[in-house]
Design a protein that fits this description.
Elements (H helix, E strand, L loop, with lengths): L3 H6 L27 H31 L7 H37 L14 H6 L7 H16 L1
Length: 155
Amino acid sequence: MATVLDRFDEPSKRVPTAANDGDNGYRPSNDEPFMNPRQLDYFRDKLNAWKEDIFRESAGTLNQLQTDTLREADLTDRASSETDWSIELRTRDRQRKLISKIDAALRRIEDGEYGYCEVTGEPISLGRLEARPIATMTVEAQERHERNEKVSRDE
């Protein structure tokens, strides 16, 4: 029995990951001025490609929802299919929230605030931005934030 998750793992239907190698393999480096126009273009392209991938995956999920119906006669098979769909829809909901973070990062690029910590104003490392282009805090500020969050939760 093919599940919705299997369909997205099929090599023929897999969406290529958004690689940002359109500029001859360019990767931002610490040897150049921080958030220069080339770096900003790189991260803008990376964010837009990520957003497009999310939209493409969402369209695939919507298409599957419209074409597939739960026809399993066996209750166990039906429950399994419903669980798969539930997981898929939760994933899409998380990605919907991610799109707003991507849009916020794109706005920060346009406003000239991208790449700088919203707490300290210090530059966020290129490695962190490469791994998480929607980051709004340096690693240190994020760790402090999470510690404070944990303390307030424990009280």
